[in-house]
Amino acid sequence: MNARPPLRVAVTGASGQIGYALVFRIASGELLGAGQPLILHLVEIPAALPALRGVRMELEDCAFPELRDIVTTDDLGAGFRDVDLAFLVGAKPRGAGMERSDLLLQNTDIFKTQGRALNEHATSETRVLVVGNPANTNALVAQRHAPDLPARNFTAMTRLDHNRALAKVADKLQQPVSLLRRLCVWGNHSGTQYPDLSHALVDGRPLLESLDADWVEKEFIPAVAQRGAEIIKVRGASSAASAANAAIQHMRLWRENTPAGDWTSMAVPSDGSYGIPEGLVYSFPVTCSGGRYHIVPDLPISSYSRERMERTRRELEGEKSTALG
Ligand code: NAX
After folding, report:
1. CATH number of 159-324
2. Which CATH number fits domain 7-156: 3.40.50.720, 3.40.50.1860, 3.30.70.600, 3.40.50.150?
3. Which residue out of 15, 52, 133 has the highest number of ligand 1 atoms within 8 Å of its CB and is therefore the one to mutate?
4. Residue 29 contacts by C-beta under 8 Å, 6 or more apart in sequence?
5. Tens digit of each residue's pLDDT (9 = 90 or more) over 81-118
6. 197-238: pLDDT as tens digits
7. I need a labelling partner for 173 at 20 to 30 A (CA). Which of 46, 52, 243, 320 fits?
């Protein structure tokens, strides 16, 4: 008989497209591993509760062996109480004619409320991943409204951008993704992000030896940064399965270890590394071990990289001042 206590996993926006792609994979054991029981806390706005009931029924119909209970709620107290992991996916989408600053402010309200609820109902061990956009700044807002929780527990997702970069380079080199190491994405999950190949290796050799600098600057960086928009154009809806996949990877790597000699990209509160102001939620290359992430230290930064890193930093500081006044 399994003696492990269940872990509690919260997902907001659980009946949205990413939520629908995410919760079944979590319930199947892909996040926590076989033999780890779990309880899902699925959080939605009142209007989406009927759809959420449908998601719950489908989860029940999967008869997942490790899924011990499902909480469906529009109450953040019930949603976040004692959760071990929180995926904050639900957010206000950008409507027609809406300015980016309007989107930012409407989401600021949502993430202020969620930060306060986490502060009250979650624990100092709760790990938070913000997926809902603008993800970095939403994570910053939630963190600022949860003063009793460790700031480092609040992160935002750039692993989807990291994966897009891996896939693009693998395709260009006609090499499997498994041979690539040490790519990273710096900064904001937005068009200013900087997917950086300067430290990357292919089969142990510096990757830039095999790539033309012009291709990197003119094709690779814009293609990765604009991939989300490209998916919307082709699919008629934004990335969902690939976002859910990246969210699971982000949390798994955080709880477990990054493979030896490799990194992942995570947007985390800066500790001042690379001149990024402390507290700004900025994507860095990180390693994970012992259940913690560590920003990769002391990488040499070229003047080109510095300029790109600063551009995305400036955008994040602008978002921060709009969101926090
Ligand atoms: P959907 O509109 O399909 O689903 C969002 C769900 O969130 C809806 O069911 C809605 O009812 C719910 N919701 C809204 N406000 C809520 C609140 N205050 N509390 C709880 N639930 C709430 O969007 P979806 O495609 O699932 O995308 C979700 C978010 O992920 C969006 O903000 C989107 O921009 C963002 N993304 C972030 C990515 C990243 O890499 N960080 C990539 C994919 C995606 O674009």
Report:
1. 3.90.110.10
2. 3.40.50.720
3. 133
4. 36, 64, 65, 66
5. 999 999 999 998 877 777 778 889 999 999 999 999 99
6. 999 999 999 999 999 999 999 999 999 999 999 999 999 999
7. 243
